[in-house]
Design goal:
The chain has helices at residues 15-29, 35-56, 105-112; strands at residues 3-10, 63-70, 74-81, 115-121, 124-132. It has 135 residues and is an alpha+beta fold. It is globular.
C-alpha cells in the first residue's frame, strides 16, 4: 500500500533533521524497501533539501513543502518552495573538485536518483526526486 508523508518546514538547517525524521517514518511504514534504495533515495532527497535551505531563501529563509511517497515500484519526493528561481544545468552538474566546499548537492542527487527534475511554475519552485525500486 502506498504511503505519502509530508511536512512543511522553514528553510533553515535544523529542518534537515525533520527531513530525516520524515524518511525514517516512511521506512518504518515500509520495511520492504531495500537498504540500497533507501540509502540512494535519502542521499538525493537530503541533498535537494540542503539546496532549498541554502539557496531558495537567500538572504531570508522561506518555508518549503516536502511530500514523500512510497510505491511498489518507486520512491518519490516532491519539494515546493516560493524561493528564488534555480539556475542549474543538469547536463553539466558534475562533481566539483575534491577541495571545493560547495557544489556537490545536485551532482550527488543526480548520481543517486533515477530522475531529478526541476520546474518553476509561477513563483514556485518544484523538484521531483524519483528512485525506481530495485529491491
Amino acid at each position: 500500500m502506498p504511503a505519502e508523508l509530508s511536512l512543511r518546514a522553514p528553510g533553515v538547517p535544523a529542518s534537515l533533521d525533520d527531513v530525516h525524521v520524515l524518511l525514517t517514518r516512511a521506512w518504518d511504514q515500509h520495511p520492504d524497501v531495500g537498504d540500497d534504495d533507501r540509502l540512494r533515495f535519502e542521499i538525493a532527497v537530503v541533498e535537494i533539501a540542503g539546496n532549498v535551505v541554502e539557496h531558495a531563501g537567500d538572504p531570508d529563509p522561506v518555508d518549503f513543502d516536502l511530500a514523500v511517497r512510497v510505491e511498489d515500484d518507486r520512491l518519490e519526493a516532491r519539494f515546493q518552495d516560493p524561493g528564488r528561481r534555480v539556475d542549474v544545468d543538469f547536463g553539466t552538474a558534475d562533481m566539483p573538485d575534491a577541495l571545493a566546499e560547495t557544489g556537490r548537492g545536485v551532482a550527488l542527487a543526480l548520481a543517486t536518483a533515477d530522475e531529478l527534475t526541476y520546474r518553476r511554475i509561477g513563483a514556485v519552485n518544484h523538484w521531483l526526486v524519483l528512485r525506481r525500486r530495485r529491491s
